[in-house]
Specification:
The protein has 199 residues and is of the alpha/beta class. Helix content is 32%, strand content 14%. The protein has one domain: 3-Layer(aba) Sandwich (Rossmann fold), CATH 3.40.50.1000. It is globular and about 45 Å long.
Amino acid sequence: MDLNDVGVFMDRDGTVSKEIGYVNHPSRYELLPHTAAAIKKLNNYDIKAILATNQAGVARGYFEEEMITKVHNKLENLLAAEDAYLDEIYYCHHHPDVGEGKFNKDCDCRKPKPGMLLQGVKELGVDLEKSYMIGDKISDVEMAHRVDAQGILVLTGYGRGNYENDRDEWDTEPDYIAEDLLDAVEWILMDLGVTIDND
């Protein structure tokens, strides 16, 4: 089965890494357990592993845009140490209500708008109807559903609280609710009909 056009988009904070609020220094950035193992499974099947994250701390003046690059360099190094990698990293540094200049913008890339998913189509050739978005907020699921992708809610980060306290107010339902990123990836592989290699 050709999985080259399948994209698995992942939120960053609370999904791939610990949710600590705005990450204003690489030393504060830590992966969640099983993150590298989850991404390595995607790599093993040539499924595109793509980060898609809102980073409005730039627009809010909490840190310079360069800090996002530094944090993502650390992320890639942590993954590489476990023989895993991301095919692409997309981030939105805009905010519609705060910030100055180019950062103060009602853009198409801020989740739940699907601009970062559409970038994956343009730059990586993913087929969104075969693709997935994983995140710890229902806005991640909504983003996926806007472009006919599947949306998965993880219970890490804000996910468990979002699920237990706010689900009566959701406008959409996750296609799957996962304990963490690894659980989500294993469900995706089963959904794709892939025999999971647990080595």
